[in-house]
Here is the input.
Amino acid sequence: MGGGNGQKSATARARNEAKKKAEGAGGGGAAGMAARGGAQEKMAAAAAEREAMRAKNAAIKAERERKKAKEAKKMGLSNGTTGGKKKKEKGGGDLDLLASMGY
Here is the structure.
């Protein structure tokens, strides 16, 4: 295999450092439980944050719909008309008069 003492020491230090990192990352035992602690709280906080965002988006959507309905009512679209005052239909005028006279 070869290699000098310096290389062997460096390899041993790297292995030991990797071992310590793996121990701190979780695993079994009390140390692992402590490293994993708070996962439920983080998940609950994230769920609450998502729910708050959904509520905010629903409120924004409701406000948009309210404004849209208000504008539609203002324009008279809610009852199928185009809005504004309805114009009076003009009659035949002279033709009606002549017809009533028998012409």
